[in-house]
Design brief:
It contains 14 helices and 12 strands. By secondary structure, it is α/β, with parallel strands linked by helices. The chain has a 6-stranded mixed beta sheet with strand order 1-2-12-9-10-11. The structure holds pyridoxal-5'-phosphate (PLP). Pyridoxal-5'-phosphate (PLP) binds next to helix 3, strand 9 and helix 8.
Amino acid sequence: MPLSCQNQLIATKQRWQLLQHPLLQQKHIQLWISHLDTSLPEVSGNKCLKLKYHLQQVVAENKSGILTFGGAFSNHLAAVAASCNWLGLQSVAYVRTDTLDTANPTLAFCLRMGMQLHALDRTTYRRRSEPAFISQLQSQHPTLLIVPEGGSSEAGVRGVTELDLLNTPDGKANLITTATASGGTLAGLIERHASNILGIAVVKDQSLPTRVKQLLTTDSTNKNWQINMAFTGKGYGQFDETLLQFCRDLARHQLYVEPVYTGKALAGVFSLISSGAIAAGSRLSFFHTGGLQGLKGLFYRERITAADLALLSGNQYSANSMQ
Ligand SMILES: Cc1ncc(COP(=O)(O)O)c(C=O)c1O
């Protein structure tokens, strides 16, 4: 696909889904799920927004592609690999792992997309934002744009500001919610909207509010936003049978989520609804940030069954078609 004839490098389409669920009915709550679809499933959700201006910069500055960082099952790595492949760009990833397991479905996908992978042990990986480390990588890869982990940079935040989560098909939402990990998505939603934005943390990271503030322009730091840290469970990527059961229940109501990001955050939203912390009669909007590819990695590590892989992905993935 020629780059020069595209303004929007990866076309996106917002789609609203009004979740039907007994708890919501009982509390007279409208919960609108905002999906953001692209032709590349791995790039849907917050990924296309966070990558948009990075990709535009690559094209505008005539760079050859993107270098980035992520865990071995990272949605961000899958998204960078897929979008660079689609646009005929190079992609390089430094992966937090001692050895590259090429049977891991996320890494296998990245390799198929032409991504070049390098393993970084945990200690070295911690240096991923240090200026000295970055400039060393930049001198090794002079033609690549370096994008931080999760795509959470000023450019990533700018992309997210383009999403309107306030105006649901049935009127204005009283509360806008999303899963929060590195904070870029939440920062973009805060920049865009005037008030009532709630990030549900899916990582145990006390520095998260500070990191979000660092990504905000000064005008936005005093807006009405919050991060709820009560639903991280045992930490990032950890989930129990109750949370898995919740995800299965949502799948039976035609909403497909995984338990690491969107499922964990929605379980938090449901808990706040049950307790009355979110008032009955509210209209909520929730950003479905994507990430269903992560289900393949959970199945690969035997943390979910083949039946769950199919159910939670809405039959997008199955044990027989793991690639
Ligand atoms: C599916 C999914 N949802 C939510 C998030 C959290 O977004 P952020 O890191 O911008 O807070 C991520 C991480 O990028 C993700 O992969």
